[in-house]
Amino acid sequence: MMATTSSNVENLSPQIIKQVARELQGLASNPPEGIKIFTNDEDITDIQATIEGPTGTPYEGGIFKIKVVLGKDFPASPPKGFFLTTIFHPNVSKNGEICVNTLKKDWKPDLGIQHILLTVKCLLIHPNPESALNEEAGKLLLERYDDYSKRARMMTDIHAKISSSSNVDTSQASLPGKKRAMDKVCDKKKKDKKRAIKRL
């Protein structure tokens, strides 16, 4: 398990490191709505971010910390994503690992960090019980949504709520371009979900 926490900087080409650094700088100065990025100057492959729980979901009001780990073959192979904040979600395992197609078979080397963060945020809006890592959450989502919602909200209240004194900066909230990008990712997920439900 230690492998995921060790640095991969020495394995990445200087060109890739430059590209990642550039993207992270852009994200830090111009973050997508509801997402804040934290870079590690010592280790560019250790990327952390917080995602605000989207309105209208059981995660609303929570701030979820996630970590994106770039492997030595990045961007040829996808990075790994982990929730550092405890969450009750079908696509997040007990140890926080995130299961989403973008980080598996749908990965393309040109997708970039922003796409990953938006996809994870989208997963909070549209969980995918088809690829559940947390079977209990997946089962509840499909069979007893109210119970799933109640449990997810309770976990959010316990683990992801921050005190009102630490103000979350939502100044980015009204930028239409970012919202469009997010909507596009989510719309695709919605269509995929409808297709999956039809199959059931």
Automatic annotation (TrEMBL):
SMART domains according to UniProt: UBCc
InterPro entries, sorted: Ub_conjugating_enzyme (IPR050113), UBC (IPR000608), UBQ-conjugating_AS (IPR023313), UBQ-conjugating_enzyme/RWD (IPR016135)
Catalyzed reactions per annotation: S-ubiquitinyl-[E1 ubiquitin-activating enzyme]-L-cysteine + [E2 ubiquitin-conjugating enzyme]-L-cysteine = [E1 ubiquitin-activating enzyme]-L-cysteine + S-ubiquitinyl-[E2 ubiquitin-conjugating enzyme]-L-cysteine
Alphabetical list of CDD domains matching this protein: UBCc_UBE2S (cd23804)
Pathway field: Protein modification; protein ubiquitination
Example GO biological process: exit from mitosis
GO molecular function: ATP binding; ubiquitin conjugating enzyme activity
Root EC class: transferase
Keywords: ATP-binding, Cell cycle, Cell division, Nucleotide-binding, Transferase, Ubl conjugation pathway
Residue ranges constituting the UBC core domain according to the UniProt record: 15-161
Basic residues bias (residue ranges): 187-200
SUPFAM superfamilies in UniProt: UBC-like
Active site (catalytic residues): 99 (glycyl thioester intermediate)
Gene3D superfamilies: Ubiquitin Conjugating Enzyme
EC number: 2.3.2.23
Stretch list, region Disordered: 168-200
Family: Belongs to the ubiquitin-conjugating enzyme family.
Protein name in UniProt: E2 ubiquitin-conjugating enzyme
Provenance organism: Actinia tenebrosa (Australian red waratah sea anemone)
